[in-house]
Write a structure and sequence with these properties.
27% strand; 2 domains; Signal recognition particle alu RNA binding heterodimer, srp9/1; alpha/beta; 2,3-Dihydroxybiphenyl 1,2-Dioxygenase, domain 1; 4-stranded mixed β-sheet
């Protein structure tokens, strides 16, 4: 008998889950906020504030809790967004990094501290070139970037011999 399993990432927020759900669902297409559970009069949180909730980002379901300040996001886990072209890279980069911080090699932290990788499919094509010199040249170009710029990767790849 087949077993059906559903795996849903659950993210721990301090007290800004509602803001995060709204932020993320406005950036990604095919997204929505689902069930939201709020604290009642019996506590332990402020009545009416969000305790937990779920949302969908481009078809992928997430769950979140307002668990308090004792745990924070680290780079040990990130969400990767694969982009078809530079316009998509620019869109996701600019929207997700707003209020957050840039890192290297297509990585950023959003304003909630969650790490994201914004990666064009062209990067994978270039670094996987059968000619290892060309692939390495594209990789070296990427290692020097913050937001990935496809034209720079292609120029490095093309100039390698």
């Amino acid at each position: 008998m087949p077993i059906t399993t559903s795996i849903t990432p659950c993210l721990w927020f301090d007290d800004n889950l509602e803001e995060a759900m709204d932020f993320y669902t406005k950036i990604f297409p095919n997204s929505s906020i689902g069930n939201v559970q709020r604290y009642g009069e019996a506590g332990p949180g402020e009545p009416g504030t969000v305790m937990a909730g779920d949302w969908v980002l481009d078809g992928l379901t997430f769950r979140g809790i307002n668990g308090g300040p004792m745990f924070a996001f680290t780079e040990a886990i990130s969400l990767s967004v694969t982009c078809d072209d530079q316009d998509e890279v620019d869109y996701y980069w600019e929207n997700l990094v707003a209020g957050g911080e840039e890192s290297m090699c297509g990585w950023l932290k959003d304003k909630f501290g969650l790490s994201w990788q914004i990666v064009p499919t062209r990067l994978f094509e270039l670094i996987s070139d059968p000619d290892p010199v060309k692939g390495q040249a594209a990789m070296q170009a990427m290692l020097g970037q913050r937001k990935i710029v496809i034209a720079e990767l292609e120029a490095a790849h093309a100039s390698a011999s």
